[in-house]
Amino acid sequence: MKTRIPMLAAALAATFSLTVHAAPPVAANGMFTDSKGMTLYTFDKDTASGPSACSGGCAQAWPAAMADASDQPQGDWTVMSTADGGKQWAYKGKRVYTFAKDTKAGDAKGENFKDMWHTVKQ
């Protein structure tokens, strides 16, 4: 019994590390989503690799897609610092966000909102 527990723990740790450090998954419809299946968006007012142009009420409606401190860049996905010292996912140098009005996985109600918000696609 004692040998099974370390093997199980090692298997669980390996599985956890593969999922925690991966870039957000791709939805079946070609849009990228966060780990909860919520659609990710970019904001035209953000500049590549610059600070977020979304603050105050904007940030409440469009929460940043946050990364854990241990998350690592992968392919076109990078991790950028936020003004408060957190980490935010970015795709091809542009910060990504979710939309508060997307209430369930797969919603994309923010697509082309005010001609400034766009889903992140493959």
Automatic annotation (TrEMBL):
Keywords: Lipoprotein, Signal. One of its GO terms (biological process) is alkane catabolic process. Coiled coil: none annotated. The keyword Nucleotide-binding does not apply. Transmembrane segments: none annotated. Residues 1-22 form the signal peptide. It comes from the Bacteria. InterPro entries: Lipoprotein_repeat (IPR005297), UCP029720 (IPR014558). Pfam families: Lipoprotein_15 (PF03640). This is Orf21, putative lipoprotein.
